[in-house]
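Extended Data, panel c. Modelled sequence:
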Amino acid sequence: MDIAFSSTIDLAAAIATRKISALETLDAHLAQIDRLNGAVNAVVTLDREGARERARQADVALARGEALGPLHGVPFTLKDTHETAGMKTTVGFPPFADYVAKADSPVVVRLKAAGGVLIGKTNVATMLGDWQSDNPLFGRTGNPWNGSRTAGGSSGGAAAAVAAGMTPFEVGTDLQDSIRLPAAFCGVYGLKPTEHRVSLAGAFPDPGGAARSVRLMSCLGPLARSAEDLALIYRIIAGPDGMDTDLAPVPVEAMPKLDLKSLRIAVAPVFPGFPVAAGIRAAAGSLARQLQAAGTTVEEAKLPRLDLHDDLAEGGALIGMMLEAAQPEPPDQPTPVSRWFAALARRDRSILAWDRFFESCDALLCPAAMTTAFPHCAPGTAIEVNGKHESYWTLPAYGAVFNYSGHPAVAIPSGYDSEGLPIGLQLIGRRWSESRLLGIAAAMAPLSGGFRRPPGY
């Protein structure tokens, strides 16, 4: 058994049947971290001895016939934004360099209660504010496929660790494509759930007890090497938790097994006015043709009549207003309250337009980002796409559209570009339909190609 690259589901089953121990499983992942992390710089905080003790306890419990849950003895890492008791949570920001929360966030509590063994934390962009994972505390994360390229951000350490076999799964955050873009860059799967599906409580260090700054568009979701693993982790972390009052009490269903012949997929290899690399566009077209040959009803997407550029601008404005409202001191010229309500009303119109779009299809297939992993660069540097220089700030556009609308989206590995870098597409579905969306991703995996380990790993 190749422990470092086994799925979460297979690891849990092997531990439960005592084919391997929790300690053996942990040691295999620690060895992978020791061997590879010096070059990749994905894991930035490591609790080696604490994890070994938790793994030993898991083995002792199993020997007594006690099952701790669906993750019994399975190791995992977390993006350095989740509050963890006894372990630093820095978000790559020097003022938080030594911040240790008094308690685990609700998501961490659930993963541990399911039997998971927390190893450590993975790298992020400073204060989660960029699409590369680089910060003054821990430096830059490289892409396992090519160290000169970015792993993406802000969940870049998470995606790189999953791709490199350092962890079987992760939980990232996604405000503007921050799970799906790095998942696409590193060739793994990543789920952004419906807004208000997974608790945001404790997902950002808040040592001053200030009001939570981001309440809209941001989501927590898993990254893994298969859709099935995403479904397992999603079911563990989703749903009301008694702390995040925005969470909707919508039942979390099991992932269904779907027949491609029963599906209706709308395809948009490019959005009007949005740049996309030719290889990504070709990958979307190729997958669409394969789906059609497999009996899926495939149609050219008739996208809602929305100005998507304005949607992105309004999404950015909403983020700015939320951050402004959370500051301890108001600015000299605060944004009028009427602007906030007008922005929410405009967003409602976009949400409803996408709701109507998904009445006629099971999912939309489109790019997850405008390009594959690009060379490390200063934020704001123009990015080359199809021989042209495009704005750095449009990098997450294909994903951020669905942060603005709140719809669930899953990044799926879909082949490789001419330089051998992973291509990621995304599937978007109806709100609250994560389990079905993951079922669609799983059904497509034989065609899209799924995860493949990077060369040399």
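The chain is about 35% helix and 15% strand. This feature is highlighted in the accompanying rendering.
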